[in-house]
Structures are given as C-alpha cells and as structure tokens.
Amino acid sequence: MAKIYSKKTLVTKNLKPKKEVVSFLLNYSKALTVVKVNDKSFEIIAN
User: 11-31 burial, b if ≥16 CB within 10 A, otherwise e?
Assistant: First the structure.
C-alpha cells in the first residue's frame, strides 16, 4: 500500500540547548570577522 507522506503530525519538540553550547556559539560569533575584498569575502576567526 502507498503511504501518504504529505500529512504532517502536529508534534512540537521541546529543544533546550545546554549552556555550554550557547556559550560556545556566542563566543564563536564574537570571534568571527568577515573581510570583503573586491568581490570576495574572507571569514577570519580570531583566537
């Protein structure tokens, strides 16, 4: 029998990231610098 894949279930997942993950992402975004030269862009991570 064919399954109907278009029906979506109304289940919401309660996603709670750990404090370490949030801290890592915030620190990463603070260290990231994007430098544009002519039509190219370079991403630099300052450690």
Answer: eeeeeeeeeeeeeeeeeeeee
User: How do residues 2-47 score in pLDDT, each as one tens digit?
Assistant: 666 666 666 667 888 899 999 999 988 888 888 999 999 998 888 6
In order of 4, 8, 31, 33, 38, the CA distances from 15 in angstroms are 27, 19, 26, 29, 41
Tokens, residue 12: 């919401």
| Domain residue spans of the chain | 14-47
Q: Could you report how far apart the first and last alpha carbons of the chain are, in Å?
A: 56
pTM to 2 decimal places: 0.50
